[in-house]
UniProtKB/TrEMBL annotation:
InterPro entries: Acyl_CoA_acyltransferase, GNAT_dom. It comes from Amycolatopsis marina. Residues 143-305 form the N-acetyltransferase domain. The lineage of its organism: Bacteria, Bacillati, Actinomycetota, Actinomycetes, Pseudonocardiales. SUPFAM superfamilies: Acyl-CoA N-acyltransferases (Nat). GO terms for molecular function: acyltransferase activity, transferring groups other than amino-acyl groups. PROSITE patterns: GNAT. CDD domains: NAT_SF. This is N-acetyltransferase domain-containing protein.
Length: 305
């Protein structure tokens, strides 16, 4: 696999300078496909199962088959061959109905995009990045942005559920029967352990929130191998109630959040958004973010072509 690793690193560097070099592949089941000219392409398949009490079950299928391709510079031909190998692998162990096939691939690799589409995958999520730079001040008359407090718990939960319901209509999120309980537990942990959450108030009522923090691309994390090493700020959730959208509330929240996140030792800021959400792409691009990786999915996994 060494040749394909070097080829893929060089290919990534050509299409997007922000992509990190390809190093070690994650753990999992190895797949191999042979191209007509005899070249081999490889991939690692990891099957994750999220139980009813797992927060991940709110934004992923319960059974998630994630493929990490190592196709070097073989482009659409290599990607298509590897997806064919994945299709044959799934035939040996049929997935459940609540399942997905997922492939994360650089957003700017248009050639591979064609192969992903041809096999039935859809661009349901994107990892977007923003350079570390000063945030413009945004003042919205009648709107106060302040740090969240434990007494705000009920309003934060309501805003998080509002965001989940909308995201489930236009993206990969799922409103499970126990969604409120899972979000309540997460909100309480954040408030107790000092999570960075800001509330936007208008007329004394909460109309939006932003939750943020800092992390590194450690092994096993959602950004491992997808961002350069270092400390990164992240935006976990931005939620604005429908009547307040379009009035600058989201911009005011992110102005405060970016001001707090952009420390001297931070490489930049990242977040995940759904390209199929009619609100997210335009808003986040105006905030200075641009897609680095696209997460392609098909549900159920058995629908892979």
């Amino acid at each position: 696999m060494t040749d394909r690793t070097a080829e893929q690193s060089e290919h990534f560097a050509r299409i997007d300078p922000l992509l990190p070099p390809v190093t070690d592949l994650p753990e999992g089941e190895h797949l191999t496909a042979v191209l007509p000219d005899g070249r081999e392409v490889h991939g690692v398949l990891y099957r994750a199962v999220y139980g009813a009490g797992s927060p991940e079950s709110l934004w992923a299928a319960r059974e998630n088959w994630e493929l990490t391709p190592l196709i070097g510079n073989t482009g659409a031909e290599g990607m298509s061959a590897l997806l064919g190998a994945l299709r044959r692998r799934l035939d040996r162990e049929p997935p459940t109905q609540d399942s997905a096939c997922a492939v994360a691939w650089p957003s700017r690799d248009a050639e591979a995009t064609r192969a992903l589409l041809d096999h039935g995958l859809q661009p349901l999520n994107a990892l977007a990045v923003r350079p570390n730079r000063p945030a413009p001040e945004v003042d919205v008359p009648g709107v106060l942005v302040r740090r969240a407090r434990p007494v705000d718990e009920e309003e934060i939960i309501a805003l998080r559920m509002n965001e989940l319901r909308y995201s489930a209509l236009v993206g990969p999120n799922v409103v499970r029967e126990n969604a409120t309980e899972l979000i309540t537990a997460e909100v309480r942990r954040g408030l107790v352990f000092g999570g960075r959450t800001w509330i936007a108030e208008s007329g004394g009522a909460a109309v939006g929130l932003a939750s943020c923090g800092w992390t590194t691309p450690a092994a096993g994390s959602s950004i491992a191998g997808r961002l350069g090493w270092g400390r990164w700020g992240y935006v976990g959730t931005l939620s604005v109630i429908a009547p307040a959208r379009g009035g600058g509330v989201g911009q005011a929240l992110m102005s405060v959040a970016h001001d707090q996140l952009n420390l001297d030792d931070v490489e930049g800021t990242f977040l995940f958004y759904s390209p199929t959400n009619p609100l997210s792409p335009v808003f986040w691009h105006r905030q200075g973010y641009r897609p680095l990786w696209t997460m392609w999915e098909i549900r159920p996994a058995s629908a892979l072509r």
